[in-house]
Amino acid sequence: MRISQTLFVTLKEEPADAEVRSHALMVRAGFIQQIAAGIYVYGPMMWRVLHKIEQIVREEHDKAGCQELLMPALQPRELWEESGRWERYVADKILYHFKDGRGRDVCLGPTHEEVITNFVKGRLTSYKQLPQNLYQVQTKFRDEMRPRFGLMRGREFVMKDAYSFDADAEGMAKSYDVMREVYRNIFTRCGVRFTPVEADSGAIGGSGSEEFMVDADTGEDAIAVCHETGYAANTERAVSKIPAPPEPAEEVAMHKEPTPGAKSCEDLVALFPDLPIERMLKTILYRAVWADREQAIAVMCRGDREINTVKLLNHLDCLGLELADEKLVKQVTNADVGFAGPIGLSDEVMLLADNSVEGVKGFLCGGNETDTHYLDVWFGRDLEQPSTHDFGVVQAGDKTVEGDGTIEITRGIEVGHIFQLGTKYSEAMNATFADEGGKLKPFHMGCYGIGISRTAASAIEQGHDDGGMIWPLPIAPYHVMLIQMRPGDEAQDGLAQELHDQLEAAGIEVLWDDRKGGAGAKFKDADLVGIPLRVIVGRDAADRKVEWKPRTGGETEVISADEVLGRVQALL
Ligand code: ATP
Ligand code: MG
Questions:
Q1: 398 domain-assigned
Q2: Within 13 Å of residue 339, how many CA atoms lie on the same side as its CB?
Q3: Are residues 332 and 382 in the same domain?
Q4: What is the largest CA-CA distance in the chain?
């Protein structure tokens, strides 16, 4: 393909709002254009990349026996009422929903469990037809609160979603294992470095789930990893053994102390330098909302630990959870913000605690009175220990629950997520099949998503330098960039045309820079768009000599034009 015949327009300026490199570079290279927050045009170069990722995804799914279909983006409310998800997705404000011309509620699909379950219902009727796995590559809509980072978090984006149907839990686990392998193959073939991690199942629900994280410092997800034991989990879900708290020297009676202005652990550490922070217990207040009620929740945890709101939300099984505002804090503690504690809290509050409070003796906690804390408090003696669960955030340096390895915190970009759903949707939507004995049973389902557009962005997050993008060969928009130094020079015209035709005839994708213009501008553009293999037709064209100059790694070499095809084929 000759550049002079394509829409190839690069920008000199970086977009002002780009927070990550992939976003800035894709805009500058003309790959994408934002038309509103989180909504993009994928230009021809970008589209080629997305196609390549989709192609790899399709090949690996087909190889594993999955079948492709296409479901509608526009979906009726009734299906979402059947599964019981309409309310939560509306409350989360993630769902685009509106009334159509007939006054009926519809939404734009953020995911397709309802539609697929409804589709197989009455079609898959016997155990003899199982297992089945159906997938699609389709545009998804999510009204993300903070669309950002370019294609990483769009409001409209391309996803591959697959759904498996099995007769029982054992079959579902098998289908899940197959998909886990499919995902490993896909991301390996895409040429990105990734880590599979244990994950939280979120609003989708279900039992087991795993995320595929592209390793990148700019990733939005924090991951707990342990190189000694191989443990890897999203911190939303990660568990650990935490260091034991120091014991008090003696047992003293509980006493109330004035703590003017001391609202944070930092203030309290300054005020009581001899009391270890592990023996200061925080009490954090939240407002939890369910479909039919809301309640104030107080959660205690050790001063050196944090509360994981994902774990808390899962435990409460509520629709929403937010930090209590000043008004609510005053209402339930009778004090300013910063002095909440377990003793004398209003009865309307549900009091819970993180596992980190276990075994803490002689602790400090808020006094439910402005500028006041209790000291030397003991569970069992001064108050009952609240119902205790794992609500903690794993921290670097914690030990793994198994094997006693040390945990590190790294960052990643979630590009894929696989779930064992169980019978959550099939039961809710009454999707059943007849087992061997003729008894009707709900399907055991799995669902499996890959962010196609996010995977492309994550490849650039991993592969770029000051000059621009560096695409992995398998998903690059073209394999070879053929740079002609002086279009119009007879020898160069002839050789460039010959190489172009020869490579294309061999199924190799060539972008031929045949534009008139300075060498500097051409090399800048070539660096920016990041096509991995590059051949330069210049001065020595009359001698059938060209320069071989890959985008990264390796010196420029002068080689015979006859060697080019062989070299490219060897790399493909
Ligand atoms: P996140 O936690 O990043 O919001 P999610 O867990 O809600 O994502 P899933 O429902 O698991 O996402 O969707 C499957 C895949 O779709 C994700 O692994 C991710 O690669 C991709 N994806 C999800 N949301 C977006 C988005 N807003 N823009 C681009 N890709 C997305
Ligand atoms: Mg996910």
A1: no
A2: 23
A3: yes
A4: 97
Ligand 1 atom 28: the closest Cα is on which residue?
153
Q: Which domain holds residue 315?
A: 255-389
Amino acid at 475: I
Determine the atom of ligand 1 nearest the C-alpha atom of 415. Answer: 20
Q: Which atom of ligand 1 is nearest to the CA of 155?
A: 27
Q: Where does the pLDDT of residue 552 fall: very low under 50, low under 70, confident under 90, or very high at 90 and above? A: very high
The DSSP annotation for 289-349 comes to E-SS-EEEEEEEEETT--B-HHHHHHHHT-SEEEEPPHHHHHHHHSS-TT---STT--TTS
Return the ligand 1 atom nearest residue 111 CA: 10
Residue 202 has pLDDT above 80, yes or no: no
**CB-based contacts of 450: which residues, under 8 Å, 6+ apart?**
57, 159, 160, 161, 183, 186, 212, 415, 416
Q: Flag the least confident range among 26-35, 193-202, 437-446.
A: 193-202
Q: Are residues 21 and 136 both part of a single domain?
A: yes
Tokens of 527: 């660096």
User: Residue 148 maps to which CATH number?
Assistant: 3.30.930.10
Q: Is residue 24 part of a domain?
A: yes
- Pick the ligand that lies closest to the CA of residue 204: 1
How far apart CA 378 and CA 165 sit, in angstroms, is: 52
Q: Are residues 87 and 232 in the same domain?
A: yes
CA 321 to each of CA 92, 285, 346: distance values in angstroms, whole numbers, following the listed order: 10, 10, 19
* 110 CA: nearest ligand 1 atom: 10
Please check whether residues 213 and 262 belong to one and the same domain.
no
Q: Is the CB of 454 under 6 A from ligand 1?
A: yes
pLDDT, tens digit (0-9, with 9 covering 90-100), for 385-423: 999 999 999 999 999 999 899 999 999 999 999 999 999
Give the CATH number, domain containing residue 313: 3.90.960.10
Q: Is there a contact between 392 and 299 (Cβ–Cβ < 8 Å)?
A: no
Reported as a single tens digit per residue, the pLDDT across 125-177 is 999 999 999 999 999 999 999 998 999 999 999 999 999 999 999 999 999 99
415 CB near ligand 1 (under 6 Å): yes
Q: 139 in a domain, yes or no?
A: yes
142 close to ligand 1 (CB < 6 Angstrom): yes
Q: Give residue 526 CA to ligand 2 midpoint distance, Å.
A: 35
Q: Kindly state the percentage of the chain with pLDDT values over 70.
A: 99
Atom of ligand 1 nearest to the CA of 161: 14
Q: Who contacts 12 (Cβ-Cβ below 8 Å, separation ≥6)?
A: 28
CATH number at residue 513: 3.40.50.800
The CA 100 to ligand 1 mean position distance, Å, reads: 27
With a 6 Å cutoff on the Cβ, whether 414 touches ligand 1 is yes
pLDDT averaged over every residue in the chain: 96
Do residues 260 and 370 share a domain? yes
Among 88, 94, 414, the mutation site with the greatest number of ligand 1 atoms within 8 A of its Cβ is: 414
211 lies in the same domain as 85: yes
pLDDT digits (tens, 9 = 90+) for 219-277: 999 999 999 999 999 999 999 999 899 999 999 999 999 999 999 999 999 999 999 99
pLDDT at position 92 is 87
Q: How many domains does the chain have?
A: 3
Indicate which ligand has the atom closest to the C-alpha of 157.
Answer: 1
140 alpha carbon to ligand 1 midpoint, in Å?
A: 10
pLDDT class for 91, splitting at 50, 70, 90?
Answer: confident
Q: Is residue 399 part of a domain?
A: no
CA of 221 to the centre of ligand 2 (A): 10
What does pTM read for this prediction?
Answer: 0.91
Could you tell me if 385 and 525 lie in one domain? no
Asked if 317 and 280 sit in the same domain, the reply is yes
CB 141 near ligand 1, within 6 Å: no
